[in-house]
Amino acid sequence: MTQAKDPAFVRFKGIEKRFGDLVAVQPMDLNIPEGSFVTLLGPSGCGKTTLLRMLAGLENPTRGDIFIKGKRINDTPIHKRNLGMIFQNYALFPHKTIFDNVAFGLKYRDVSKTEMKEKVEKALETVRLPGVGNRMPSQLSGGQQQRIALARAIVIEPDVLLMDEPLSALDENLREDMRREIDNLQMELGVTTIFVTHDQREALSMSDKVVVMKDGFIQQQGEPEEVYNNSVNHFVADFLGHSNFLAAQVKTTRKDGIYEVALADGSTCLASPVGDFEQGEKAEIVIRAQKMTLGYQKDFVQEEGMNYFYGKIKDRSYMGGEVSYFVEIADGQLLHVINFVKRSPYRRKDEVYIRVDPFHCRLLKQ
Amino acid sequence: MKEKPWKPWLLLSPSLTAVFLLLVIPVCFVVVYSFWLRAPSGQDIPAFQFGNYAKFFADFFYPVILLNTIRVALETVFICLIMGYIPAYFFYRTESRLKPFLMILVMLPFWISFIIRTLSWINILGDSGLINHLLLKSGLISSPIPMLYNEGAVIMGLIQYLLPFMILNIYVSLDGIDKSLAEAAKSLGCTEWQAFREVTLPLSMPGVSAGCLLVFVLTCGTYLPPMILGGPGNEMIANLIFKRVIGTLDWPFGSAISVILLLLLVIIVYTYNRYMGINQIFKSLSKG
Q1: Given a cut of 90, is residue A287 above it in pLDDT?
Q2: Reported ipTM exceeds the 0.90 cut
Q3: Which one of A1, A22, A364, B31 is most buried, counting C-beta atoms within 10 A?
Q4: Distance separating alpha carbons of residues B218 and A63, to the nearest angstrom
């Protein structure tokens, strides 16, 4: 594309939604760049679906404005917004053939019969289901039905593709395939896509940008790596991946940006701060389960500038390539450690050391 | 696991027994009776002859009542359909917390005796009933408007009896329709009305056709509203049967009329089934 992409192709400005006393979406601004794949991620009730439905025109915002391509669309009725919407339960019309389902949106657009036929066939090919036009939706599997729903949404060449938990009704293996398929399709078509999910793996694997939400507030937004590695608060760190949290108090600050903090048991730990901290401030350290390395005492040469925890393995679960351990450390806290299996996995009651780089011990405000 | 083909039948046996004892056997009796002779003395004489049927079709008197019954039934079905679809659709769409309460209101009439409900129309529509009383008092009219003892009153009585059946049938069908279907239609370019016509209405047809059939059949067999609210010209076929059997104790002829009505309804239901598909109704209900 030669034209510069609009960084605010879809723009929410001071948007807010209340249902009676309940605030579903707190006043917020959010920009969706043109052609990007943006995921709204959060637990149920965080406002992500409400945000999507306001964009779709299925809910009216209590306050604030929504813009698509710079045009305010608050008062545009849903059928004139030119959006492709994918629902959790496919929402195919059960009384219409697959062809009629896919052609449905074209009926309300200025499209000739022959053109309609071409477009529907092309859309069915795009979702790799050519030749099913004469069948009824009930004759297709769940995954196929969702692909037809996708075809129905893209055939109208929407400005924005909206997906409301489109994979959650599918079983695990199928979900993986569909995830890749949607991702490839979006890249191929370059259509701006907003994807709502509570599944962090979907969010991390597909998106250009992840918007983590909770209680109607945006917690953090950024590229998947950014949000995962540099989680800005407890909620984001906890919601994405497996994290350990340790209560800490700031002792001294060092020139290289690493802080010395005191843990609950009095020991000292090195951590990299997220934000500015004062001496003596109470904070917490978050460590990802995958960023810690387990070893017996003999395996480690104690290095300066590294953190070591001594502990005993309380529990473990073998997951094929990797093993998930729960290690009890000095003050009785359990640390969740996920390591690849090197020789043989550690056993219960093994006494081990955990090594973790201060870079991965992220100090968060409480 | 080994399939046990008799198992469903075992579960059905209590209701099948009841249906057999209370429905199939009595109907057989009625069919047998319809061939009997009635002696001038009033005695019923076992026989096998078609005199009772011949009597029914001898002149226009009885067939006209039958046709009138069907016409009244169709009118009732039509009005119930219009009056029933709207509240059913409201129940489907509403998010109101009052919904359960309003649903109970729909079923409330079932708690009151049908006879009482029908009789109470006299207090409302009669010459000295509520409406005429108020109109007379306010001076809008000088003599009471006759509102009772005509076909309108009969249909009114039938509607207040049958409307809940229509509402509930349509509502059950609507309730099984995923609301996101209409949303999907709208996102694809339909207006609210187009989405209703293209998606919600066709998908609610099983409930509509079930409700229509139920109202039709029940109207054909009811005798209370015409008896209480109708005039001499508003007799329906069930009144005729009632009069023959209870009034003149002419069981053979009453039975013959019953058999004619039964056959007619069987033919109508069968034809209806061919085109509207009752099987579809059950399918859609189970899919819900």
Answers
A1: yes
A2: no
A3: A364
A4: 53
Q: Among A91-100, A122-131, A300-309, which stretch is predicted with the lowest mean pLDDT?
A: A300-309
DSSP symbols for A109-169: SS--HHHHHHHHHHHHHHTT-TT-TTS-GGGS-HHHHHHHHHHHHHTT--SEEEEESTTTT
Is A79 in Cβ contact with B188 (below 8 Å)? yes
- List, for residues B256-265, the tens digit of each pLDDT value: 999 999 999 9
pLDDT at A69 over 60: yes
Domains along chain A? 10-237 (3.40.50.300), 242-365 (2.40.50.140)
In single-letter form, the type of residue at position B24 comes to V
**Which chain A residues in 143-162 lie under 8 Å from chain B, judged by CB atoms?**
149, 152-153, 156, 162
Contact B187 A85 (CB under 8 A): yes
Distance CA B119, CA B157 (A): 9
Please choose, from the candidates A220, A216, A208, A212, the residue with its C-alpha nearest in 3D space to the C-alpha of residue A183. A208
In chain A, what residues touch B189 (CB-CB under 8 Å)? 79-80, 105, 107-109, 156
| Chain B residues with CB within 8 Å of chain A CB | 178, 180-181, 183-191, 194, 198-199, 202-203
* Domains parsed from chain B with CATH numbers: 59-287 (1.10.3720.10)
Question: Residue B32 and residue B256: Cα distance in Å, rounded?
Answer: 9
